[in-house]
Specification:
Elements (H helix, E strand, L loop, with lengths): L1 H23 L6 H7 L10
Length: 47
Amino acid sequence: MIAIAVFIRNLVLAGILAWLGLEFAPSEPDESADTSQAEPVVVSMLG
């Protein structure tokens, strides 16, 4: 019985955290994220 209560509590907490994540997530990506992706990336291929 305790396991069911813990499972339901975890589902409720997960739902609340997911809602908060959607509520406070930015609707548009930051400008700084675009500039960091514009830098060249060097990949080392080891074969």
